[in-house]
Design a protein that fits this description.
This protein is α/β, with parallel strands linked by helices. 24% of the residues lie in helices and 29% in strands. The protein has ten helices and 31 strands. The strands form six sheets. Strands 14, 15, 17, 18, 20, 22, 24, 25, 27, 28, 30 and 31 form a twelve-stranded parallel beta sheet that branches. It has a seven-stranded mixed beta sheet with strand order 5-4-1-6-11-8-12, with helices on both faces. The protein has a six-stranded parallel beta sheet with strand order 16-19-21-23-26-29, with no helix packed on it. Helix 2 links the parallel strand 4 and strand 5. The radius of gyration is 23 Å and the shape is elongated. It starts with 8 loop residues before the first strand and ends with a strand. The relative contact order is 0.11. The model has no long low-confidence stretch (mean pLDDT 90).
Length: 415
């Protein structure tokens, strides 16, 4: 298929909803999870800015259940910054990952795009979108999935797939299998032709037909409805699995980084990955300093222009400091996310931690953890407006908002 310079492309980013961010508490109590800052930018910013590299991008749609007002400010700011129209579309009820796409099909097809990208907001990767599009044009078919090789032990947590090693055709797809299928998994990043809408419609029609034809026993009629609604269509089980092996779907393998941002600890790991990517793609974003006029900076560090960091502080690697934070003399920060309006007083140490908005850490205090990102207490998390008093040590703990700690704690969840 030849690519025309006039062919337009749109991107749809699934951002989920308030019920989905429960594993992200206490950080999602303040703002929607997609707007939580990772490497100094909202989580959703990373896939949106990756979309900017797609040739002939006409529009980016964010689809989710959050109230429109929660995204209004961000959407207008990012549209101006990237010079690409970004629009938030609110689902009235859950439609599934493919059903949500179908629900807004008329809007998505407004610009008559030749291709539609579908991305998940809670995915952290380098998003090789132009390369995927080029590969997809060579393959033909209705869609191409981004895939990555992972360890056989972790594969079962994701959608496992088998692809033809020569043609890259998707031959078999199974979501979170109980037995090992493959060490190649689905990354949650896709490019489709508009034919995807026909495939989704066919699933809905079959459901309606089956429901009409099936006789219901008197016992079943008395049971609460467990049938999946016809307009609830999951991309993985309802589209990818049935279309595998039919020369319709293909795979594009990334050799770069990939993670899923399901928990606060993983957001710290993903901050590290994005900061190291900035070193290659946007080095001007990263801070530098040698301890004379500004703090000593080691490795990849982001410091918001409005933050005040004392020249005797030592920052990095893997540190992100948000707006209006104040970092005092002799402070040591390693592998942490410091959110807006935080104050860290002299000689305090923060390592493997996320410090919530408006929190304060007293003199000579330590906020720390082992840094096992995917375990529950591998990272210390302070919610909004937490005060850690002088000389207090907080280790591997989660502290909910508006608490004051005047004694040391370890391996605790403080409600």
């Amino acid at each position: 298929m030849e690519s025309s310079t006039e062919e337009k492309v749109v991107a749809v980013i699934l951002v989920g909803g308030p019920t989905k961010g429960t594993r992200f508490r206490p950080l999602s109590l303040n703002i929607p999870k997609p707007l939580f800052p990772i490497a100094g930018q909202p989580m959703v910013h990373h896939p949106i800015s990756a979309c900017k590299r797609i040739p002939n991008l006409a529009q980016v749609y964010l689809v989710g259940f959050y109230e429109e007002r929660e995204f209004a400010l961000y959407v207008s700011a990012i549209s101006n910054e990237l010079k690409v129209p970004v629009r938030y579309l609110r689902e009235d009820k859950p439609h599934g990952s493919a059903g949500g796409l179908y629900h807004f099909r008329n809007l998505i097809m407004e610009d008559n795009p030749s291709h539609i990208f579908l991305l998940n907001c809670d995915v952290c990767c380098s998003f090789p979108l132009p390369e995927m599009l080029e590969a997809h044009r060579k393959y033909g078919g209705i869609g191409t999935l981004l895939v990555i090789k992972v360890s056989p032990e972790s594969a079962s947590q994701f959608g496992e797939l088998v692809a033809d090693p020569v043609t890259n055709e998707l031959l078999h797809y199974t979501e979170k299998p109980e037995t090992f299928v493959s060490d190649r998994i689905n990354c949650g990043v896709y490019v489709f032709t508009p034919e995807i809408f026909t495939a989704i419609r066919d699933v809905s029609s079959q459901r309606n037909d089956t429901a009409t034809l099936r006789r219901v026993s008197s016992y079943e009629a008395l049971q609460p409805a467990t049938r999946i609604p016809a307009d609830f269509v999951r991309l993985d089980q309802d589209i990818l699995s049935p279309l595998a092996g039919k020369k319709q779907l293909y795979t594009y393998e990334t050799m770069d980084f990939w993670e899923q941002i399901k928990s606060p600890g993983m957001s710290l790991r993903c901050s590290e990955l994005y900061l190291s990517q900035f070193r290659l793609t946007s080095p001007h974003i990263l801070a530098s300093g040698d301890g004379t006029k500004s703090a000593i900076v080691i490795g990849d560090v982001y410091i918001h222009p409005s933050a005040k960091v004392h020249p005797t502080a030592k920052i990095g690697p893997n540190v992100s400091i948000s707006a209006n934070a104040r970092v005092g003399p002799g402070v040591r920060l390693i592998s942490c996310i410091i959110l807006d309006d935080v104050e860290i007083m002299e000689n305090a140490v923060v390592t493997n931690a996320i410090v919530g908005w408006k929190s304060s850490i007293g003199r000579w205090s330590r906020v720390q953890a082992e840094g096992v990102y995917n375990s529950k207490l591998g990272v210390t998390i302070l919610g909004d407006s937490v005060a850690v008093e002088d000389e207090v040590v907080v280790t591997s703990s989660i502290v909910l908002p508006n608490k004051t700690l005047n004694v040391s704690v370890q391996d605790e969840i403080i409600l």
